[in-house]
Amino acid sequence: METEKSRRSVTILHNGMIVTMDPQDRVFKNGAIVVDGDKIIAIDQSALILREFAGPDVEIIDLHGRILLPGFINTHVHTSQQLARGIADDVDLMTWLHKRIWPYESNMTEEDSYISTLLCGIELIHSGVTCFAEAGGQHVSGMARAVELLGLRACLVQSTMDSGQGLPEKWGVQSTDDCIQQSQKQLYKKHHNTADGRIRIWLGIRQIMNATDRLLLETRDTAKELKTGIHMHVAEIPYENEFVMNTREVDHGTVTYLEKIELLQTNLLAAHSVWVNETEIGFLSRAGVKVSHCPAAAMRMLGFAPIKEMLDVGICVSLGTDGAPSNNRMSIVDEMYLASLINKGREAYLKGTTDPTALPAETVLKMATVNGAKSVLWDNEIGSLEVGKKADMVIVNPFSWSMLPLHDCVSSLVYCMRTENIESVMCNGQWIMKDRNILKVNEGEVFSLAKQASSELLKRAGITIPSRMNVL
């Protein structure tokens, strides 16, 4: 029996299937978990937990056979792009970036970023996410305000760019000093470890094509000084590698150059990492770099990332959705399903024969939980259900047409579960969604604010979406 004797008021969730994702991969068929404040203090069979902890001052919740598992961790999402959902569908990457996304982002206000993050956060919570890694956007203060209100956990970053072509005039080219001082150090001082410790500030580099060597090196050193992480888009498209070879005098691309300047570190979260060769996979592995795999966004614009090869050499690979204009769906549930199928299909394509064992369900579930926690450098507190860790949990109701019959719990969570099966979400010991109702904000009010803000933002940015059909 795992217990903590010094307990105050507690909540017991019992009579459920507890998928712990702990180092022993324990699943309690009729298990219970005890939450005291923001922490888990006991996990065991229901009968033992009730005998030890039940009392007149204890809240007891009967799960009635539902599944309880750690909150999902989305390791790559642009929350400030949520108001841009649908503005850049079916266009090439450069049009996507230069004609749609950058004009959109450069016209954002802090209030826009706040509303966009609220809207994105609602969707994240409905898909069982309790923690996310912001991929880089505008107005971190607006993001932080929304995250604090929603009750989520997050690693927030400001996009930093100090060079490159195609940047909007409104932005101009920010100096390296401004990138380091304003976008990194000042934001860290203002927001790091706020919202009851749920917000951490990371350093963000948008991409190597918009970063001078000085920005790369000083970001590396500043992250070490502040003991925080770096979030960067890495090796997204072939042109990126060509650009690096032409401007940095290396024989391959981004990963090769980052290895040369010693930016590949255990605190680097490399998003996408699609166009990497075998040597570069070795660089990532030896340096302990974490990789965020975004299956839907990769299939839409980037290509097949060598995920199985990365996992085979011990790289910590997690899952992300990317932003709404890259994916349209902020559902980590969908990404789990896609990750397994896409990588099975890739194996079949490369080898000329099918391999249904590639990326099995248990591996994918770890990518969304344990590996996600390691990727955001928070695995000492989240990612699994263990005594002493934070109470970040999701209740899944499997009793629906989408998941029944329930022969294999882990398999069903990856291959059968829909967002609609996510019933309740707890973060830091607080319910942020219960019975599919978001508790901290009024969803209808956020929807109304988002519609108005998005319309006004697109007008300011001069973005028009051409009609695909004869709209009357």
Automatic annotation (TrEMBL):
Q: Which UniProt keywords apply?
A: Hydrolase
Which Pfam families does the record associate with it? Amidohydro_1
For this chain, one GO molecular function annotation is:
hydrolase activity, acting on carbon-nitrogen (but not peptide) bonds
**Residue stretches making up the Amidohydrolase-related domain:** 67-431
Q: Is Nucleus included in the keywords of this UniProt record?
A: no
The family database entries (SUPFAM superfamilies) matched by this protein are listed as: Composite domain of metallo-dependent hydrolases (SSF51338), Metallo-dependent hydrolases (SSF51556)
Protein name as annotated: Amidohydrolase 1
